[in-house]
Amino acid sequence: MNEEYQAAAVVKDRAASAGSVLASDADRDAAAGQLSSALAEGRLTAGEHSQRVEAAYAARTLGELGALIADLPAPAASAAVRQPEVIPDEMDRCLLCALLILCPPAGIAWLLAARRRARAAAGPPVTRATAGAVTLRQ
User: Fold this and answer.
1) Using one digit for the tens of pLDDT, what is the confidence trace for 91-120?
2) Which secondary-structure segment (H or E) carries 130?
């Protein structure tokens, strides 16, 4: 969904600078994706969503597409929370598979110890507030 937001932001930026430029299918899809996300967030009603999506696929220029998504908020790029890796990169995956098959408790213990070492090497998580959203970096 983040890719949809980025594509819709590009459509919005391009529409502001070049309103008479013809829109591509990718531009229409990006605008429709942002409209669908707005529906899922409760920003649009079902009727309004269907009207705007229909108009997005009928739009000929970037200016027309920009007008359909102009009143929707821009996505916060830094609001995403990074999830820790399940299996650290430096871990020997073949050995992990062998341990999990031959002795599952030992394999699980080895995996958890490797994750703990990887987190310790990365340093403590940093939490910061950005535009009303909490971002956790690990």
Assistant:
1) 778 888 888 899 899 888 888 888 888 777
2) strand 126-130
